[in-house]
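Researcher: Go.
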Amino acid sequence: MPDFKNVSINKSANIFYEGRVTSRSLEFEDGSRKTLGIMLPGEYQFNTVHKEIMEINSGELEYRLPAEDWKKITAPGVFEVPANSKFDIKIIAIVDYCCSFIK
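Model: Structure:
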């Protein structure tokens, strides 16, 4: 879906890793939530509360879920992270992403 309709956007940025990862939160009429963001080259780790679907719009990365091997994505691509989990990510080329939180 290239466009989002009827959303509320939190104008305050989510800033991680000294500004190397940033995003903005969107909330939809049905209560669902997504973030749109940018990740600069580097290595990061994130924890999840809800299941997450990471859509990679541009860029190149490698990611690793617990007890799995590294996997590479050159955009476009998608990967999922289970709820109450974590994942490691290596950004090779600047990544533009959309993360959907699934309750």
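Model: The chain has a mean pLDDT of 95.
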